[in-house]
């Protein structure tokens, strides 16, 4: 199973260490950012969704016109539009991109974030709604005839979509959420299950649980893990760079008057903080200091070292069955370029070597 490499773009230059620069929607930045990922050899680009930010689907619609090959991953929150309409909307966008779209379903790990958009369901209710939402979404994409549906959240008579996805049987569904309620939904619907950059031990445990849930439905699932690689020509310089990133993160948060905030409802955030409790460095290269500093409000753990060291660290996750690696930097545009030059080719070479050895062993065994 060859590895998939995903990056992430936003509509203006910003990160934990960079104040937002330019207008909220900077078309030139989006163009440069998307084209940099394509040139760097990324397979796919995630476009995130926030309750106060631009519509991610329209960002992808624009970015697809200034790129040719790279695929896209749309962060999509169930519940704000009805699933049959969403299915037609997503299939339309996928057709206009030439089949380059997948969807990342995010049910929501923060009541505050959801309520900004008028959603007042609690955590477990949101995942129950997502379960039904995905059932209708997938059926709308694949049904050859109108269908009826009556559930706790949605009701349809003769629902149907004339527009069908170019990809069969439907757009790939990526899914996030580490709570028990989330894992039940993942087992039924996820093509790819996404988790943040946890320790190897945590990753092994969580992927086993997801596999068990999927097996109950006779399904398999792909796994994605997210990291913020910090690279330098020597290991010492990489760790010095990491400390500078931490100092800048603290400085900007103090200047902005931000705090870590209260406990997170997101189980993924709790798991990152649990890893951080083991120390700033776990498994030799997993750096947790930014996660602790920010309250783990996003994928905020890093792998630190030379390009070869970080590539080897990523391979350990591939060995656990992870097939997708989402990597983004603290200096987002420049880091994407560096990853394309220094990291992605090394990761692909290591995975190819591993697959070649496995193929040779299987051939001998046969």
UniProtKB/TrEMBL annotation:
Cited Pfam families: Bac_luciferase
Key words of the record: Flavoprotein, FMN, Monooxygenase, Oxidoreductase
Superkingdom of origin organism: Bacteria
SUPFAM superfamilies: Bacterial luciferase-like (SSF51679)
Coiled coil: none
Keyword Ribonucleoprotein: no
Domain Luciferase-like: 9-322
Residues spanning the membrane: none
One MF term in the entry's GO annotations: alkanesulfonate monooxygenase activity
InterPro entries: Luciferase-like_dom, Luciferase-like_sf, SsuD_RutA_monooxygenase
GO biological process, one term: alkanesulfonate catabolic process
Database matches in PANTHER family: ALKANESULFONATE MONOOXYGENASE, BLL6451 PROTEIN
Protein name, per record: LLM class flavin-dependent oxidoreductase
Organism: Azohydromonas caseinilytica
